[in-house]
Amino acid sequence: MEASRETEFLISKPYDELQALTNENRPSPGDFLRHRLAKFEECFGIKTHDDLQASLEGLSPEEFAAVTHVTIEAFWNVAKHSRARNIYLESRRVGPTLIIRIRDDGQGFDADDPPPGMGLCYLRRRAAEVGAELDVISTPGRGAAVQLRFEKS
């Protein structure tokens, strides 16, 4: 059953990213991420919480594809590595900055020396391709947060 859940989640990743780039039957960005978050809870049993206070409507299709990729990869890392009971999806606007954050209450890690296989370098590169910054905030025993920052007017 666990292998089946992981397979379904992995297969959905490229589909989700492609869907974010098209306009066909596309739900709002917030609704799309809420759906993926609910799917994550269904697949992995980690309690999910969404607090999308800032609208994601101003993101370009390419920016939203990057958000989708980073978000789903962060969800996946929580499932594989964190031992979290809860995961939170949040968005905020601070002046011209749009912040999208995924955080958990898991075991955390040393953000200055992350374990191999976390894919954080790839996520940073993916964020940079669309002009965003990626921050990874974690301390052993205190969970982790991955956040994207977009400068928007």
What can you tell me about this protein's structure?
The protein is α+β, with helices and mostly antiparallel strands and 153 residues long. It has one domain (2-151): Heat Shock Protein 90 (2-Layer Sandwich). The protein is built from four helices and five strands; from the N terminus they run ααβαββαββ. It has helices at residues 2-21, 29-44, 61-82, 120-129; strands at 47-52, 86-94, 97-104, 133-138, 144-151. A five-stranded mixed β-sheet has the order 1-2-3-5-4. α3 (61-82) packs antiparallel against α4 (120-129). The longest helix is centred in the middle third of the chain and has 22 residues, at 61-82. The protein starts with a helix and ends with a strand.
Q: Helix-strand pattern, N to C?
A: HHEHEEHEE
Strand order of the largest sheet: 1-2-3-5-4
Q: Please tally the helical runs, counting DSSP H or I stretches of 4 or more residues.
A: 4
> Which percent band covers the strand fraction?
15-25%
Tags for this model:
single chain, 153 residues, alpha+beta, Heat Shock Protein 90, 5-stranded mixed beta sheet, 4 helices, 24% strand, globular
Brief summary:
With 153 residues, this protein is of the alpha+beta class. 44% of the residues lie in helices and 24% in strands.
